[in-house]
Amino acid sequence: MKAIVSVKRVVDYNVRIQVKPDGSGVVTDGVKMSMNPFDEIAMEEAVRLKEKGKITEIIAVTIGGAKNEETLRTALAFGATKAIHIKDEGEVQPLTAARALAAVFKKEGASLLIAGKQAIDDDANQTGQMVAALLDIAQATFAGKVDVDGNKATVVREVDAGLETLEVDLPAVITADLRLNEPRYLKLPDIMKAKRIPIEATTLADLGVTAAAAVKTVKTVPPPSRSKGVMVKTVDDLVAALKAKGLA
Amino acid sequence: MPELIQRRDLDFLLHEWLRIETLSRYPRYSGQDRASYDDVIDAATVLAEEQFLPHAAKLDANEPHFDGERVHLIPEVKAALDAYIDGGFLGTAFASEHGGLQLPYTIFQAVSALFTAANIGTAGYLFLTGAAANLLAAHGSPEQRQRYMRPMIEGRWFGTMCLSEPQAGSSLGDIKTRAKPLPDGGYAISGNKMWISGGEHDLSENIVHHVLARIDGAPAGVKGISLFIVPKYRVNADGSLGAKNGVRLMGLNHKMGYRGTTNTALSFGEQGDCVGELVGAPGQGLACMFHMMNEARIGVGLSAVALASAGYRYSLDYAKTRLQGRPASNKNPEAKPVAIIEHSDVRRMLLQQKAYVEGGLALCLYCARLVDEELANPDEQVRADAHLLLDILTPIAKAWPSEFCLEANKLAIQVLGGYGYTRDYPVERLYRDNRLNPIHEGTNGIQGLDLLGRKVLMQNGAALKLLLGRIQASIASARASGDAALTEYADALANAIDAATRTTMTLGAAAAQGKLDLFLANAHLYLEMMGHTVIAWLWLQQAELATKALPSASAADQDYYQGKRWACRYFIRHELPKALRQAELLATLDDTTLNLPIAAL
Ligand SMILES: Cc1cc2nc3c(=O)[nH]c(=O)nc-3n(C[C@H](O)[C@H](O)[C@H](O)COP(=O)(O)OP(=O)(O)OC[C@H]3O[C@@H](n4cnc5c(N)ncnc54)[C@H](O)[C@@H]3O)c2cc1C
């Protein structure tokens, strides 16, 4: 049984994000990039399923420019058995990613897509769901626990009200939440071995996918810095201040 | 939490300056690339931050304890060591035939610096084990490698170096531990060793002690010293463990710093029950050790750099947020206090730390790169040159950082003021940890003697000439850049090496006249002079590279490269003149310390 794991290259979670002066996006030049942390969790889960003998192959897939190869190398070091690089230098919208992943899913005859629940760059939280819709298969998002048994997966989901347990028929899409597992440390021998595994290259066109253009980024602005507090002298001043802000 | 060693700086030194990727042209490193090196450093960074750093203060506060039977350590130590071993880090630089990853020594050193900065007390066991395995890679027989080295590279057994004895530290020729030949070709070992790091613990299945001892009837002095493998548990023919081997822990030493690494007084063969295996030829013990000790000494220098780097980065963060005082020009008592980094004197302390730390890091990585050249370059001449340069630079790489990066740790405490003097902040611990480095692996006094008494004059000054040639080339290149600041620094360095050369000739003449005690009386001062000169050279190279990179640099990199130029300016203007004055003093063959009557003290 094959699992696909989608891995996205994003600005490292330790980096303090800076918006470009012209508002066209965030600065990525010379900034440390790494695998989306939720995708690391997805990778780890896939590796654990493989170690338990529940799946036999893990195909890591990324969409993006030449540098994305590094992200695939990391996935291979984690334990992916194969890596596919969908080369695309442009902006990849969630729908584009979903179409591409769905195409790979079909082509490979996979039974599972394990994805991060969202990527920490645009926080869209859409791709996994859209893949399920495009393929018309089951989905279990925000997974906190995953069990695979034969043709079914049991997934404990983290929802606002607590935990929800779902049973889904395979093939299915599972998206990983933060507490699903703690990704392992990469081992140096695995890092070095990963260098020698060939990466399969393809394009959106090869996969018969057209890029979505429904969403346009109009402007990027930094969050407003918290304004300084004011000291008020009396309760009346406080009430007046709150009223002025429309809070009382 | 600041980055304890700035990744940007590691990248600059490894990639932009040392062009480490070019090592992959040599067969030993073929197939490797920058991405491999970056991934290895990334993996080390995560492990050091998550498994080593969090318990560093706790381990310092809870030093190892011996109850008469066993040594107790906090459990976090073993967990961190296991994570390092599982990650395959012990094999980083070992050849693949020995089960290693055959990565460059330079990369291994960069990785080691990250673990040192995070927690030297825990990391110490790993470095000792790596060095012990390395010794067998160089001098062990194939059987010894199979039996003892492999389990160390796999992390199942740990290793130690047993040189020092209570009465013989600097002067190893005076060691007394005995080795009596046994009929089966082995040796019965007996004697006492002192200061042995990692000499006892339950962290590994076995401990492989490398012991210097005298075979009965061997000549006095260093020529009579041989090297032996003495395991804690005897090893059966199939590699399984047998009975205890008569190595007894007499007690733990209670140290100022480096507390997590047990430091032991050991006795061997009290009951005639301790056997050892000879490594190499009889009488070659010290030679074998020294072969490995050169690398160990670069490691000591780098460890001093790493501990200072951690202090620098902590104190830099602190200085940006601690509010105190106002600029001298602001007489308004109601004006808001400024962050202390606004005060020139605090910036002095930070810039001085930066200049020492990044200068020391450049020196140690440069030496590590030479080790790689010597190991892997197919060109015999390049290998010979690398060897010669290492001969003269190793005592400097050990002593200069351990002297001046310790000074940097002192400054880090000073930046934090009273808070720096408390255990609520890590800077005092870093200072205590670093205070070992001028002492072990040959005291800095001994390094001075080694540099002036042996390395500088050997082969008619061949090593010094080679070094001076390299410095001259950098001076010429900086002058050719046409940049006014670089030219100023190049001129200052040219002056310094002229003075150092003249002084060396004067000292050499005294040696030739047989005035040996006078010649060596100020060897430590000579070491400082040469150290400052070499560091100024490395700063000039860094500044030139930064200047060239500036025009096309991103905004963040602009700051970084400008930082290199400021630190170079500081080092050349504030530090290098010290070397000039030392050169003048040395050239007078001053005999103050030589002729000082003891009664005058
Ligand atoms: C924490 C720690 C860990 C250590 N780990 C190990 C280890 O794992 N294995 C091991 O074998 N050893 C180890 N050592 C021992 C260490 O290498 C010695 O302490 C060191 O070599 C100095 O020896 P000593 O302490 O006997 O001092 P001494 O040799 O007595 O020196 C005292 C002072 O006299 C000076 N001096 C001595 N001889 C001369 C001379 N000829 N000319 C000028 N000055 C001189 C020295 O520079 C020093 O300042 C460790 C020491 C410490 C403190």
3D structure, described in words:
- The complex is a heterodimer of chains A (248) and B (601).
- With 248 residues, chain A is α/β, with parallel strands linked by helices.
- Chain A has one domain (2-244): Rossmann fold (3-Layer(aba) Sandwich), CATH 3.40.50.620.
- Chain A is built from 6 helices and 11 strands.
- In chain A, helix 2 crosses helix 5 and helix 3 (94-108) crosses helix 4 (127-135).
- Chain A is globular.
- Chain B is α+β, with helices and mostly antiparallel strands.
- Chain B has 17 helices and 12 strands.
- In chain B, the strands form 3 sheets. In chain B, strands 4-5-12-7-6 form a 5-stranded mixed beta barrel. Chain B has a two-stranded antiparallel ribbon with strand order 1-2.
- In chain B, strand 8 and strand 9 form a beta hairpin.
- In chain B, helix 11 packs across helix 15.
- The mean pLDDT of chain B is 97.
- The A-B interface holds A 29-30, 32, 34, 70, 73-74, 77, 185-192, 195-196 and B 7, 31-33, 35-36, 39-40, 42-43, 46-47, 50, 83, 86-89, 91-92, 101, 103, 554, 556-557.
- Flavin-adenine dinucleotide binds next to strand 3, strand 5 and helix 11 of chain B.
